[in-house]
Each structure stands twice: as C-alpha cells, then as structure tokens.
Amino acid sequence: MNAAIRAVVRQADALGHETWGIRHGYQGLLDKDWAPMPTRACANILQRGGTVLHTARCPEFLLPNRRAEAAENLRAEGIQGLVVIGGDGSFRAAEALQREHGVPCAGIPGTIDNDLPGTERTLGFDTALNTAVEAIDRIRDTASSHGRLFLVEVMGRSSGMLAVHTALACGAEAVLYPESPDDSYETLVARLYANWLRGKRSSIVVVAEGDGLGSAVAVGDRLRRDHGLDLRVVVLGHIQRGGSPSALDRIWGSRWGAEAVRRLDAGESGFYLGEVAGALALLPLAQVLDPHPSPPGDLSELVGILSR
Amino acid sequence: MNAAIRAVVRQADALGHETWGIRHGYQGLLDKDWAPMPTRACANILQRGGTVLHTARCPEFLLPNRRAEAAENLRAEGIQGLVVIGGDGSFRAAEALQREHGVPCAGIPGTIDNDLPGTERTLGFDTALNTAVEAIDRIRDTASSHGRLFLVEVMGRSSGMLAVHTALACGAEAVLYPESPDDSYETLVARLYANWLRGKRSSIVVVAEGDGLGSAVAVGDRLRRDHGLDLRVVVLGHIQRGGSPSALDRIWGSRWGAEAVRRLDAGESGFYLGEVAGALALLPLAQVLDPHPSPPGDLSELVGILSR
Amino acid sequence: MNAAIRAVVRQADALGHETWGIRHGYQGLLDKDWAPMPTRACANILQRGGTVLHTARCPEFLLPNRRAEAAENLRAEGIQGLVVIGGDGSFRAAEALQREHGVPCAGIPGTIDNDLPGTERTLGFDTALNTAVEAIDRIRDTASSHGRLFLVEVMGRSSGMLAVHTALACGAEAVLYPESPDDSYETLVARLYANWLRGKRSSIVVVAEGDGLGSAVAVGDRLRRDHGLDLRVVVLGHIQRGGSPSALDRIWGSRWGAEAVRRLDAGESGFYLGEVAGALALLPLAQVLDPHPSPPGDLSELVGILSR
Amino acid sequence: MNAAIRAVVRQADALGHETWGIRHGYQGLLDKDWAPMPTRACANILQRGGTVLHTARCPEFLLPNRRAEAAENLRAEGIQGLVVIGGDGSFRAAEALQREHGVPCAGIPGTIDNDLPGTERTLGFDTALNTAVEAIDRIRDTASSHGRLFLVEVMGRSSGMLAVHTALACGAEAVLYPESPDDSYETLVARLYANWLRGKRSSIVVVAEGDGLGSAVAVGDRLRRDHGLDLRVVVLGHIQRGGSPSALDRIWGSRWGAEAVRRLDAGESGFYLGEVAGALALLPLAQVLDPHPSPPGDLSELVGILSR
Q1: What CATH number belongs to C2-124+245-289?
Q2: What is d(CA A113, CA A128) in angstroms, rounded to the nearest whole number?
Q3: What is the pLDDT of residues D145-198, one digit of tens each?
Q4: Closest CA to D295 of D123, D148, D176
Q5: Rounded to whole angstroms, how far apart are CA atoms D66 and D72?
Q6: Residue span of the signal peptide, if any (chains A, B, C, D) (predicted)?
Q7: C201 CA to chain A: closest CA distance, Å?
Q8: Which of D51, D135, D242 sits opposite B239 (nearest CB)?
Q9: Which of A38, C55, C100, C109 has the most CB atoms around it within 10 Å of its CB?
C-alpha cells in the first residue's frame, strides 16, 4: 500500500496540493488522527510491506451518525477529497460517505484476496501469490524428499483467487476453494489415488481458507479418518501478508495512486480504480456491491492436467 | 521456460500424444539432439530457472537448405508439430519452417525483454523485473546511507520495457531508454540538479542496455566529465536472467504451453501465443515481423513525478 | 544435505573411490535401494533444498537382526564405508552398525534443530533460521500496521536453539522454549504488559514447538482466556525445512562431506563431524548419547533487553 | 549495522544511559551532526539494510587538530563514550582519539570484507556472502542453459575472504583472489581445459575485486586474447552491499552492540569486539594495525576438488 500512498502524496505535490495522512483508517478519521504528509515522508517507503499509516477495523463507521462526524471533521479541516485504500468494506464506507455527505472519494483496491468486483487486480495480490509460491516451493522440497502428502491452506475468506493461482504456479496436485463444485472432496480423493497409482509419491493440495469443506485442518482430518492417509497440514496464514511488495504491486500502486489524485484534481469522484482488460480503468464506487468475481475455471482445471 | 515445457509435455500426454524434447534449440533440430520426454521428466522443474532443454544460437538456421534438413529430420522421425519457445529470431525461423516446408509450428513468447509485437507479456519478463527491483533495493540502501548517485544498467538491447518498469517499481529518480526522446541527457541533468536543490542527496538512474546515449558506463563518464559528479555505475547484466521464476511467469508459461498443444492437436498452426487486453490470445506467426512495442510513455513520465 | 552429498561423491572421486547413493536412508540399506553416483549426478544440486537421495523413517533398523542384514548387504556389494547424514537417531544406528558389525561409519550432522551434542552447528540450521526470520519479518509488517500480538511457533521438538536464535534475529519481544525456567509464562505476561505501558502496541512472541507450556496454539488460548488478549497464532511448520540452503550451510556441508571421505580413506571411522570452537572437529560417534545442548542463556536474556 | 545501533541504544537505556546518534560518521562528529536517539527510534530498523545514521568518508579526520576538535565536541556535550562501527580505517581513528585525547572508545567490526585482524567475523559479511551466492545461482541457470563460461567479480579490495567463501558456496569451478599464489592464471587455464575435456560445458570463476591479475574484466580480456574463449563478465559490485541482513549478522550485531555498552558502562574502553574461536571476544583497538587475515587455504583448494 505504501506505493499508493507515496504516489498520492507526490502526484498531489506536483499538482500543488497538500496531502494529509490519516492513521488507522476510518478510526483515525473519527479521532482526527492525521497530519500533513510532505513528499520527504515518502522516501524509502516504496519497498516496505505493511502501511506507514497503520490500519484498524472501525465497526462504528457503520453507524450513520459516526459517518456524519467524519464528514464534519474533514470539512472543518478543509480537506477536499479522500483517497481510500482497501477492500469492499472500506469502499462501501466511502460510497456512503460520498452519497450521504458529499465528500469526494476515490478508491484504490488494496486486498490480497483479489476479490473486488470489476477489477482484475488488487494491490497485494501479486505479492501474496509470490510469497505463497515460495513457501510451497520449500514445502515441495520436503514433500519430495519424504514422499509425503501436504495440505497447504492459503488466505481467501470467501474467494478462491489466491488458492487457484497459487496452485497453478506451484504445480500443486489439486486445489480446493469455495467456488468449486460440490463434489470436490471426491474429486480430490480420486486424483490422489490416480497419482499414487502413477507412481507419484508426494502431493501438495492447496486449500483456500474459506473452502466449503472447511479449513485445511478439517480436510486433513477427514482424509486421515476416511482413508488412513499420512499427511501434514500447513497453514500459511499471516506470512502471506507483509513483505516487500512485488514489482507489479508497486507499479499498479504507483499508477493508481497518481491517477486517483489527478481525477480528484479534475473534479471527478465517487469512483474506484482497477485493471480492466489489462488497462487502468475507473469504476463507480457503487459497483463494489456487485458479487465478487470467481477464479477462472480453466485455471483450476489446468492444475489437474499439469500435475499428472 | 520450464513451466511451458512442463505444460506442453503434460497437456500432450493428457491428449494421448508423446512429446520429444529438442536440446540446444534449432541446433538440436539439425543434430537430432532429441529424446522422448515423459511426464515424469517434468517433475520439480517448474520452480527452476533456465531451461532443462538448454539453448544455443544457431546462425546456420538462416540458410534455407539447413531449414530443409530440419524439416526432413522432423518428418523422418514422425514428429507432427513443433512448439518453439523464444524471441523474435526463433519465431522468424519457425515462420519460415512452416511456410517453406509445412511444419506445423506454435510459438510461446520467451524473452525477458518483453519486446515481441502483439503481446503484452513474454515469459521471463516479470521474473527479470522482480530480480532487477530487488537488486536496486539493495543499491538504494547504499545510495541512501552514502548520499550517492548510482547509474544502474538493466537488460533490453533495443527495448526500454524492462528499464521503464524497473525504474517505476524501484522508485528511480530517472530512466534512460532507447525509445525516449533525444533530449534525454539534458532532461536527466536538469532533474538531478532539481533533486539536489530539493535536498535529495541520493539518486538512482536506470539505464537500458541499448540506450541511445550508450551504456550506463558511457553516460556515467559523460556526467563525470561534464559536471564533475561523483557517481557509481552498476551493470546488472546476467543476474537478471535465471532464478526461480515468479508466480506470474509460471502461470502464463503453464497456460501457453497447454494452449499451444491443444491448438496443434485441433489442427491449428502458424501462430504464437500472447496476452492481449489481459487475456490469452493467438497471433499469426508472421506478426513477429511487425515493429516491436515501445514502453508506455505515461509510465516513464510517472517515474519523474513520483521521485520528486 | 545436497552440499554434503556432492562433496562426498566428488572428494571420493578425487581419491579414486566410487560412491554409491543409498535412497530413503536406512530403509534403502535394507532394500538395496542404491546405485552408483557419478560426479556428474551432483551437477546443480548444491543450490537445491531437500535431498536428492530422499529420506524415510526406518523403525525396523532398531532391531539387531535388521542391522545384521544391512551390514551383510554392504559387505556383499563390497562397500567399504558408510557416510550417514542425519540427526541423533541416525547416528545411534550408525554407532550400533559399526560396534556390532564393524562397518566403518562417519556421521555428518544434518538436522535443522541444531541439537546434537558436541557440535555448535548442524546442516540446515542456518537455512531454517533465515527462513523463519524472513517469515517473521513479513508478520512484523502486519503486526506493526495493525498493532497486534502474534505468537509464532518455530520447529524444535525438544530444543530451543532455533527459537532463541530466531527471536534474537527478528527482534521478537519474547521467546518461550523447553529449556527455559518454569516461570516463563508469568514472565511473558509481565513483559507484554510492560511493553504495552511503554506504548508498544505490536508484539511478536516466538514459541518453540516443544515448549513446556505446550504449542503456540495452547499458549495463545491461555493468554486469551486469562487476559482477554486479542492475538494471532502462526505455525511456521514445514516452511522452515527445504528451500535453497544458505551460504554457511553449503560451506559446512561441503567441508564435512569432503572431510568424512578423507578420514574414511585414511582408515579412520566411528566418528561424526562437527564445529567446535569455530573449527571443523571430529567427535566419537558414541558422543551422540550425551545430553543435547541448551541454547545459551545470555541470548534469550538479550531478546528481552533489546525489545524494550 | 542497524542491528548494532539498536542494541547499543536499548542496552544503554536498560543501564540508565542516554544514547546520541552521530550521523555521517566522523564528519558528523566534527559538525556536531548528532541527536539523542530514544529506544523508539530503533523500532523496525533491525531488518533494514544500510544504516539509519548514514555514513561518509572523512579524510580530515587523519589530521591531529581535527581529532582534537572532535574530542572537544564530545566533552562539551558531556558524551562519555564512543561506539564506532566500521572497518580498519574507522578503528585506527578511534584508537588515535582514545590515545591522544582519552575518549573512551569501543569498536564493532562492520565491513563486508571480513578482513579485520583478530576476528573471524565482521558485520555484513554473511549477508554479502548470501547475496553473492544468490546472484551466482541465477547466473548458473544461464551458464548451464547456454553452456557458457562466466567470470563473476565480487567485492574485497585487498582480501579474498568473500571470494573464496562465495566460490565454495556457489560451487564455482575456480576462484582468483589477492592472496593466492602467483601462478593462479595458469592454474585457472589448466582447470578450465580439464573441465572441458571432462565434458563440463559451463563454468563459473569467482574473481576478487583486488585480485593481482586485475579485475574480472582484465582477466576476461586475457582469456579471450590468449585462448579465444567465449565468456561473459559480471561485476556484482554494490549489489552485495545493502539488503535485509542475514540472521547471523543480526545476531552478532545485537550481541556486539549490547556488549560494547556493557563494557563501556563497566569502565572498559580501547577495545573492539570480535568472534574468536566461535565465541564473543574483546581485542585491543591497537590490534587493528596487525596484518589482515587471509582466507583459509583449504577452502580454496576445496573449490577445485568439489567442482570436478
């Protein structure tokens, strides 16, 4: 996210605007936990994980009167536009803030799950994907040396995006994810047996956190119980967050951050940025209410074909 | 490239075809340096850099009679289609082989320069980009600690693609590349002085190998001579090649490898694969003769805005 | 381990001996699952994690008659010495094999736990340490951004070596490990409160797998129950195994592999190699029965001082 | 170095002392470019490359009257002890400052060359070693795929320490370094031919920056001229500096930083810290005038044996 913050600050400076950084998300907006952010404050943050502005959940922001306070805080300070970096929750709040109180808002997609409607990419996804793939490359060394079955859980509460891309990139033998068809457990068992018969002694199965069968631990227990399989479960968890961002995430963070400011400067608002058909695109904030995208079916099918 | 090789072999196996691996590129086609490649031979190659089939230059292949021999070798062995992974030289040869001798050919873009006509992506580009960015992150530590100017040369003989994307992703102060306007040296000097006046003591300038001003060494000499600047030159060189491929390169290598085989199996040929508007696409082999794409101008402009 | 395998094979070749690789550890010795290993078979394995010879548990080898079979297999094939890479279980078996049947054995310490008696280092420890530290650096990004408490479990069934070194290297706020004093839970709680009062909002506690308080999950449950703390648990697990070995692990693997062969060639046996006072040293195989070393107390104390 | 800075500040705080950070090395001591450094200023610096205090050359400090000024500055501010992190130049200056003006000094070895007398380790060496090895792993991918000879220059003006350890860890075919015998060029040529005859098509030769034969570029030119070899030269250069420090460097930086403060607090001074026989040790500052250590001969010999 720091790439986007840096781009917002410096593009604004180039257009003659001052930027204030709001710490701890919407909570900071309520608490006036903010300060001017000069361009120098963005030196050497591009390569750092996390966010220099910190973040926090703010359930209060769901209350209309709290949003009214936030709008009043912004007005009192003379802040003319708000750039929100976050996922669908953050965007819904921004949409309400603009609709109810006329605060000009721009959204930059920042979630490792890549599950926002309308955009093919969100900040952090490419980094999290590479981190998961590197971790599984290490696990593969052990799986191969020991001839073992591993279930590896990756993030993605309600989205299989990260799981399917990770599985394809690390050469997993199978992938389980929320949007996959109901018979995925039987399919998994059949594939593991087929691999075994083919002489493949080690297998890695990627499981999305929010898979319908339950977590990797649950799937592992079921496989042990039903088929007596000797297996190991690894939960990647928070390792996938953080870390120095990948080149792509830095490039898109920079492009979106600069574009958000240019558009606000030009009087546009009520949008979020995205990648559509490979190009930078504007989407109306209200589109965040659309259903979230599913991972392409041909990719998950490819996982099976390529691990034979 | 190993991701594409693995995908070709395993998709072919799934369709009931046998795959032969040709070592050392077209030279191996002339020398019959080939062998059957079972699916097991592709175990654990997805995460490795380089190519298990090796590669070599083969100037002889420019001669029509040598191409005729190659076609005859393929026919004699009963090989029904050829998947070529490489850059524009390799694709021109494939185009000639198909046009002259009817060998069904499919191309998979494999060059870290990302300079093939028609496609937004080539295999190895994302990996090389991340490698260059990581290297420059390290150099940034020294540049900041010592308050120094660094010129860093990245690959890309006639293309600034890698240079511009690297510069944006590593927060470089400037970028020089072949397709940039003639006044780039004066622009560079002006920007370095402006940064100095703004209190910025360390700067990193990314220089494309094939920049019109000459290599990073030449630009460095000129800056030293004209302005007495104390600077360091780093040539990233072959460090950008090799290394475990990024997730994106693995995913596209897998997708293209599988698609190439499916299309050949369906009787199509004379194409190469690419990414167009974010999606997998087929391009006619003859399109490789088109002019190579230039890096987007807005990205190189952004480098300047964001390093203020 | 591949560094040691490569060194054994190539040093043996330099001394005029042939090397056979035994797959799947002692099980392979019983099954004659072995083959000659030429120096070319060791090309490009130095940088790979895991082991090209695979590994397996072999409980049968605890039976004297099975060891007799193994010795007979070696004799029948004319194998004159055995290099065993592994931990204390593997060394005990080697010790018995030599004592009972006169098979000349040499041991190379290969366990990521660094818990073998007599040696300051085992292969894999430095790699696992760096892997754990990199993973926790990522978690730190999230801990800082969100102001959260994380419990991170690292490997080390009965040894705190990995936990204490990891904690010091990643700047953890506290470390729990098997050999630490009984009051460690109270100490932990006191330290977390002290940090909180000092304004430190994020904390990372490293927990050794075999800590007396139970796993990180158990400690986390207790902290939640007793103090209502909002925390996250991450189990690094098998991510710490595998991965391209660190420079130090490659260097010591190379040195030990070569030395083992030279000593066997000179007629010595019944030893394992180690690092003592920073230098390469020979230790009698029987020393593996000594108690395992504890992590230096001053290091774990330093964790507390430096996280203030 | 940040690990050592953090340890100095926090250990001093634990002992009730205040720490001031001096920016830009001895130049900052002359310019009073210093400020109090609270423990909070050391948050999240452990994992960063470079140094938060910046660094600079200061040739003036060789003049006795400038050193007198520096001592006066320290006295005037009430600073009671100086911790110097650096190489032999920095330590010589500290030695003079203490001898001439009674300023209590403590040295922490900080140079990636690992060429300080008396100590087996300096901060940055393990990190630079791993960085060089990772870079050469990438080059190896290309060398293998293309069957090529690479000369790779690593840092080390007058010391082969980094070159020899790098060569062993990356499985280089040969290494050239300043302290090696005069006939190293002939030995190199002989070895390259022997490898070629043995069927080894790709070779990597590590060359120390300060090798007697000249730089890697010079050696490459000579090999091309004398033997018509087709080869590539890569100069790793400043890539080896910077980057997130390895676990070992963080641990030793932490240990040395804390120990330096404890000793100064106990009234000791005029020493530098080191690793002797694997343990933390104190050395008299004057020992820095001793000749620098040579890389162990058995390691460079091993490079040859293991690359057969």
Answers
A1: 3.40.50.450
A2: 9
A3: 888 999 999 998 788 999 999 999 999 999 999 888 766 888 899 988 888 888
A4: D176
A5: 10
A6: none
A7: 11
A8: D135
A9: C109
DSSP assignment of C149-172 equals EEEEEE--SS--HHHHHHHHHHT-
Output the CATH code of domain B126-242: 3.40.50.460
Tell me whether residues B247 and A165 touch, CB distance under 8 A.
yes
Query: What are the beta bridge partners of residue C34?
Result: C22
Nearest CA in chain B to A259: B302
Tell me the ipTM for this assembly. Answer: 0.95
How is residue B171 written in tokens?
A: 């927060």
Q: State whether residue B88 is helix, strand or coil.
A: helix
Q: How far apart are the C-alpha atoms of D294 and C50, rounded to whole Å? A: 33
Indicate the CATH number for domain D125-241+296-306.
3.40.50.460
Angle, alpha carbons A1-A44-C231 (nearest 5°):
50
Rounded to the nearest 10 degrees, what angle do helices D88-101 and D64-77 cross at?
70
Please, what is the Cα angle at A231 between A162 and C32, to 5 degrees?
Answer: 125
Give the fold, CATH level 3, of D2-122+248-289: Rossmann fold (3.40.50)
Q: Which of B31, B88, B113, B290 is catalytic?
A: B113
List the one residue out of A34, A43, A110 whose CA is nearest residue A74.
Answer: A34
Out of D39, D199, D306, the one facing C6 most closely (by C-beta) is: D306
- What does the alpha-carbon distance between residue C100 and residue C168 come to, in Å, rounded to a whole number? 44
- Which one, of C31, C33, C40, lies nearest residue C13 by Cα? C40
Q: Which of C49, C54, C232 sits opposite A238 (nearest CB)?
A: C232
Query: Tokens 């830095």 label which residue?
Result: A250
Query: How far B28 CA lies from chain D's nearest CA (Å)?
Result: 13
- For residue B11, give the nearest of A250, A254, A305 by CB distance: A305
The verdict on a CB contact (< 8 Å) between D247 and C277 is: no
Q: How far apart are CA D37 and CA D15, in angstroms?
A: 15
From-to residues of CATH 3.40.50.460 in chain B? 126-242
Q: Is the pLDDT of residue B72 over 90?
A: yes
Q: Which amino acid is at D83?
A: V
CATH 3.40.50.460 location in chain C = 125-242
Pairing mode, strands C174-176 and C203-208: parallel
Are the C-beta atoms of residues B74 and B63 closer than 8 Å to each other? no
Residue tagged active-site, from A113, A115, A211, A249 = A113
- Total number of residues shown for chain D: 308
What number of other Cβ atoms are within 10 A of residue B120's Cβ? Answer: 18
Q: In this complex, do C145 and A243 lie within 8 Å of one another by their Cβ atoms?
A: no
Q: Among residues A132, A175, A200, which one has the least CA distance to residue A297?
A: A175
Q: Which two tokens stand for residue C95?
A: 């010790």
Residue intervals of chain D classified under CATH 3.40.50.460 are: 125-241+296-306
Bridge partners for A284 per DSSP: A271
Residues carrying CATH 3.40.50.450, chain B: 2-124+245-289
Contacts of A99 (CB under 8 A, 6+ apart): none
pLDDT digit string (tens) for chain A, length 308 residues: 899 999 999 999 999 999 999 999 999 999 999 999 999 899 999 999 999 999 989 999 999 999 999 999 999 999 999 999 999 999 999 999 999 999 999 999 999 999 999 999 999 999 999 999 999 999 999 888 888 999 999 998 788 999 999 999 999 999 999 888 766 888 899 988 888 888 888 899 999 988 777 789 999 999 999 998 889 999 998 999 889 999 999 999 999 999 999 999 999 999 999 999 999 999 999 999 999 999 988 999 999 999 87
Q: How far is A261 from chain B (nearest CA, A)?
A: 12
State the chains in contact with D (3 or more Cβ–Cβ pairs under 8 Å). Answer: B, C
Tokens of C40: 């070319």
**Distance, in angstroms, between A59 CA and closest chain C CA?**
15
Other residues' Cβ atoms within 10 Å of the Cβ of residue A226: 10
Q: Which two tokens stand for residue B280?
A: 């997998």
